[in-house]
Amino acid sequence: MTKIEKYFERLAEKDFRCDLEPMRRVCELFNNPQVQYPTVHIVGTNGKGSTAAFLESILREAGLKTGLITSPHLVDLTERIQINRESINSKTLDALVEKVRPRLPEENFLSFFEMITLLGFLYFSEQKVDIAIIEAGMGGRLDATNLLKPKLILVTPISLDHQNYLGETLTQIAL
Fold it and tell me: What is the per-residue pLDDT across 83-120, written as a single tens digit (0 to 9) for each?
């Protein structure tokens, strides 16, 4: 296991946090990369990944340089961050992690999902994507992806999921 994989394994132990402030603080440290290119934010319970894949394919075929953040990954962590359907390579991912870690207020300041999201935001900014399609994580108004200023928000079907964080009813979860 590489040093970076061990780092992400430690971050994975952190639970979902109902607080956007840590992610906001870190994005500000890096000049808010998430607002430096147009985005489409995909939220909902079911179908986010398929919707993101379809939209990315359409935009790429139209000649745009596309960024894509999805979760979970199937085989390798690098699948979560893609440009033109090419996963970020592990060397680039490692370099981004090493760029971010020294600037964090503390070693495990971000959760696993927050870190992956931040790295995607930074990568897309550095690579000057034309548009990024960002799949929400667990969802809710406190999801790390909610720091976006999207041009479009797509809402896929919502069902009962993550009630311990998002609420007991469909209305609460939708809010």
Answer: 999 999 999 999 999 999 999 988 778 988 999 999 99
Q: How far is CA 31 from the centre of its chain?
A: 17
Q: Which two tokens stand for residue 105?
A: 């207020």
Letter for the amino acid at 151? K
Query: Which residues lie below 8 Å from residue 159, measured CB to CB, with a gap of 6+?
Result: 45, 46, 170, 173
What is the edge-to-edge ordering of all strands in the sheet holding 86-87?
86-87, 81-83, 66-69, 131-135, 39-43, 152-155
pLDDT at 172: 64
Percent of all residues in the chain with a pLDDT value above 90, rounded to a whole number:
55
DSSP assignment, residue 70? -
Question: DSSP H helical segments within the chain, as ranges?
Answer: 3-12, 21-29, 48-61, 90-100, 112-126, 163-166, 170-174
The model's pLDDT over 50-65, given as tens digits with 9 standing for 90+, comes to: 999 999 999 999 999 9
Helices (H), strands (E): how many in the chain?
Answer: 7, 6
Distance CA 15, CA 3 (A): 21
